Structure formats: structure tokens, C-alpha cells
């Protein structure tokens, strides 16, 4: 069930629009199995796009601690689901995030929360990768940040080219990760 805390203004209008789509697809919106579909779709869409109403930098800041640790911190294999902004079809996979603290660390659970917030917006993988990296860099001011995202895109698997099991990998990095040696260390640690 969709979490009611993510429902917001516009639910009735969204439900009405979903009801209008069904006949355009060749369906009867009064058919028993479809009567409640518009409301279910509207609620699902609001839940799947809840990231627009959350501040990822605030999430990091609420659990920021002074710490003199200055080695790489990695949170890997962060599962996520998102919606491709081109077709509104899911893409999903894993994010791997590293940062090198510069006097401050954040709670480890906050890194997956940042990924979650950006993934719950209409997205392209390339932008999402950049957004996660930039958010951590802005909030923590670390010595460096690197993000690698590996994802499968249903817009590529269900329609268009219809290629199954293809994985798209994107990366973004700044600071100390501009050095090949540091990037290589991260890549070796996430394998």
C-alpha cells in the first residue's frame, strides 16, 4: 500500500487524468478491474515522486558529526527504483557512493536516504548520479566524492530496442577522486 504521508494536493486531479487515459488506451474505465485503477495510479505516482518534497542536504545535515577521519567512506549496493522522465517507466539498480571526510562525517543511513530522495523524482540516470555527488559535496564539504550507479531501464527493455539484461553505468566524481589512483581504489572496493 502507498504510504499516506506522501500523498499531497492534486490527488483528485491526478485521479481524474488517469481515468481519462484508460479509454484512450482502448479500455473501459467502468470495467470491474479498472474502477479503482485511476486512484491507485494517482496515489502510486505521488509516492514515486515524493523526492520533490524532501531536502537531501537537510537529511545529511541533521546527522553531521565532527570527526577527524580522513579515509574513504563507502556505502555500496544501495538499491533504488526511479522513473525515467522520458517514458515514465521504471529504471532500477544499485548506487555506490564514497566520500573522503574533511572534518565531518554523516550518519551512514543518510547516504542511502540521499539516493532515495533523488531516485523518487522523474529522472535520467546521468543527472541522478550528478545530483547525489553534488549534494554530498555541498552538504559535507569533503575532500572528494564519487558516485557510481548501475541500472536496468525498462524503457529500453519493454519498448524500443527491447534489449534485456543490459546495464547502464554512470559515474560522477570531484575533489580527491579526480586522481586516477583514488578512483581505482574505489572501483576495486565496490567490485
What's this entry about, in short?
The strands form two sheets. This protein has a five-stranded mixed β-sheet with strand order 5-2-3-6-7, with helices on both faces.
Describe the structure.
The chain is an alpha+beta fold. The chain has helices at residues 11-24, 37-48, 56-61, 110-119, 125-140, 154-157, 180-190; strands at residues 64-66, 73-84, 90-100, 104-106, 122-123, 144-153, 168-175. The strands form two sheets. The protein has a five-stranded mixed β-sheet with strand order 5-2-3-6-7, sandwiched between helices. It has a two-stranded antiparallel sheet with strand order 1-4. Strand 2 and strand 3 (90-100) form a beta hairpin. Helix 4 packs antiparallel against helix 5 (125-140). The two termini are 35 Å apart. 29% of the residues are buried.
Brief descriptors of the model:
alpha+beta, 191 residues, 7 strands, single chain
Instruction: List segments where confidence is low: pLDDT < 50 over at least 5 consecutive residues.
Output: none
Helical stretch tally = 7
What pattern of helices and strands is seen along the backbone? HHHEEEEHEHEHEH
Number of distinct beta strands: 7
**Shape field:** elongated
Structural class: alpha+beta
Rg of Cα set: 19 Å
Task: Tell me, rounded to a whole number, the average pLDDT.
Answer: 95
- Strand content is 25-35%
Order of neighbouring strands in the sheet with most strands = 5-2-3-6-7
The first-to-last residue Cα distance is: 35 Å
Fraction of residues in helix: 25-40%
For the largest beta-sheet, the strand count, sense and barrel status come to:
5 strands, mixed
Amino acid at each position: 500500500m502507498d504510504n499516506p504521508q506522501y500523498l499531497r494536493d492534486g490527488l483528485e486531479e491526478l485521479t481524474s487524468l488517469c481515468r481519462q487515459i484508460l479509454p484512450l488506451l482502448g479500455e473501459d474505465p467502468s470495467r470491474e478491474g479498472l474502477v479503482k485503477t485511476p486512484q491507485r495510479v494517482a496515489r502510486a505516482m505521488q509516492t514515486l515522486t515524493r523526492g520533490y518534497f524532501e531536502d537531501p542536504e537537510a537529511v545529511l545535515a541533521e546527522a553531521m558529526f565532527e570527526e577527524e577521519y580522513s579515509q574513504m567512506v563507502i556505502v555500496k549496493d544501495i538499491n533504488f527504483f526511479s522513473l525515467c522522465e522520458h517514458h515514465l517507466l521504471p529504471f532500477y539498480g544499485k548506487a555506490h557512493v564514497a566520500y573522503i571526510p574533511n572534518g565531518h562525517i554523516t550518519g551512514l543511513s543518510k547516504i542511502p536516504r540521499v539516493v532515495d530522495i533523488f531516485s523518487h523524482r522523474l529522472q535520467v540516470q546521468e543527472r541522478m548520479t550528478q545530483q547525489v555527488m553534488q549534494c554530498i559535496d555541498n552538504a559535507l564539504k569533503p575532500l572528494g566524492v564519487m558516485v557510481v550507479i548501475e541500472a536496468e531501464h525498462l524503457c529500453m527493455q519493454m519498448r524500443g530496442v527491447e534489449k534485456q539484461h543490459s546495464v547502464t553505468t554512470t559515474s560522477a566524481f570531484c575533489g580527491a577522486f579526480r586522481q586516477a589512483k583514488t578512483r581505482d581504489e574505489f572501483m576495486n572496493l565496490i567490485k
